[in-house]
Amino acid sequence: MSKSKDLSAKAPDKLTKKQAEAELARLAGEIAAHDKRYYQDDAPAVSDADYDALRQRNEAIESAFPDLVRPDSPSGRVGASPSEKFEKVRHAVPMLSLGNAFSDEDMADFRARVMRFLKLTEDDALDLTAEPKIDGLSASLRYEQGKLVLAATRGDGSEGENVTHNIKTIKDIPHKLKTKSPPKVFEVRGEVYMHHDDFAALNKRQEKDGKPVFANPRNAAAGSLRQLDSTVTASRPLRFFAYAWGEVSELPGSTQADVLKALKSWGFPVNERLRVCKNLNDIEVIYGELLEARADLGYDIDGIVYKVNRLDWQDRLGFVSRAPRWAIARKFPAEQAQTVLEGIDIQVGRTGALTPVAKLKPVTVGGVVVSNATLHNEDEIKRKDVRVGDTVVIQRAGDVIPQVVSVIEKKRPKGAKPFKFPKKCPVCDSHAVREVHPETGREDVVLRCTGGLICPAQVIERLKHFVSRNALDIEGLGAKQVELFWDKGVIKNPVDIFQLAGRIAAADLPPLVEWDGFGKTSARNLFAAIDERRTIGLARLLFGLGIRHVGETTARLLARTYGSWVAFRKAMDAAGKKGGDAYDELVSIDGIGPVVAAAIAEFFAEDHNEEVLAGLEAALTTIEDAEAPATESPVTGKTVVFTGALENMTRDEAKVRAEALGAKVSGSVSKKTDILVAGPGAGSKLTKAKDLGVEVMTEDEWLSLIGD
DNA sequence: AACCCTCGAGGTCA
DNA sequence: CTCGAGGGTT
Fold first, then answer.
1. Active-site residue A133, yes or no?
2. How many angstroms separate the CA atoms of A528 and A532, rounded?
3. Residue A342 approaches strand C within 7 Å at CB
4. Structure-model confidence comparison of residues A644 and A650, the more confident one
């Protein structure tokens, strides 16, 4: 080692040929080892910068001694397997999440809700299937003509990652459906998980090999499935349970239970504890049974999933935002633990919100070590009377997020004083206030730093938000880099990001390579990523600005309403010139109320925001117009009112269907109404519609219009 | 009152 | 990625 150390200090062109040869051999070995640690063992041993330095040195020596380039030279592998990532796959049918129930009462509510929606009575048999909710990761497997052609992770529900190669290594999953007449298309959905015994054995092996052990089976399964090298996945003992489906050309049955039975016959493992519940009593009994059996199952479950068994009813029930109305997950009570609260930190968020975080003596709960937990706000601390030094009960809500449940007062040390929530921002020392709601006059629960632009914490958080994934999504510019650039005083607002490359080129700033954590490649990639975002979608930009109360959805709503950046700016400006602000215009948008409208109007009335916007307009090449709504139908954009009795569907169903087609459903007839769908017994609304000359149609006419 | 949305937190792996 | 609190909208 000492010999190579000498060499590594020597400039490439000062090396003798023999030394260069030795040095190249050493670098090849070392870089390959780092590659393996990083890509296969998920345990990088060096920083990216050090790694880059190794590669750079290798390249420098190679260029000085071109005839010595090794056949296994690391430079030949640049960008090959290491930088490859999983390809994104859009799910034909989104993979949704489930609503949660925590008690028998919640389950009764769920069942009642379903009955109300379907207009059922106790005489109608409402069967629910019940099965354990496996704690793993969901995947969607697409079979065409009975052959497995694509497998994807859930991702965000609409877009996942292509993990076909890895999925194919799982023995539970058939590559071909065991049936003579396979459907044209069938997407099987289920859970990839790891059995307790396999998990223990895997960790033993990891330990023996000197590799890090996994915290729990779920993480082990997730890590295994996301391996870039599928031979590694193959060596991991993954298993699978099928429980649902996505896009299908035909269904082998008319109930949930039937289809699962068919899946079993096709060669998939289906959980053996699947039951059908006829009534509330069955629902509660199976819960008790499963809770008792939980420890002996051999795999982790975090609850029970109940689904309406009849598929025609599932169709009628449809969805609320991202969850089906026909299914619910009954969660098991969370595991709890006790520990000592050693301190309370105050964090400052992008909107200035001061959030207290409990610093805990590390303790294991539900398989992971917890050392922090959010305390949400001042009131929460008061309500629970949490004091520094207290012994507290903590649990992982939904088995994920650590939270402080309660304080054990008996164990309180003498002299522990109630926590005094700071009245000033811990970062910039500005006053912290509770905002007052303009109409109700109620005070907000969160204290906010009033520092705004002078508060470094807020500015940095806003920058992080600007570059984050759902906003500008600048790759290579994450939280760490934002902080670095801020520390160096180089990036103070979004515009600075786009001027970075230009200023370095103009020698106004030192080249990135001279900075900590940047190598040649990472610098080049960063500039490329920034340039890529000089063309940006309107909704992303609006979201990225970080206007209070304007999240992804509202940003998209604004983008869709105005269509283009120019139109949007004009609306904000024109309204401003009249002496008022854009408020009136904004509140008239459906979905934007007084608070949100005020926040947006204020943002655009602010001079320093105007400055940044002008800078962005100059720096960006194109702000893309909002895309047209996804669905195009005869009723897109029309305002529809339903009145009287509907025969083929409930009012809620009708509303859901119409909205899915891009129509707006309203409760009362006005001159804005385009269509009134009138059933038997329609009264004043029908009269009013006729008066106003609104088009009136029957339920049947409506159904044929929307092509049902 | 139901539902939707923002906002912030923590953990793990790449 | 997931969750929960709490505010906003209808």
1. yes
2. 6
3. no
4. A644
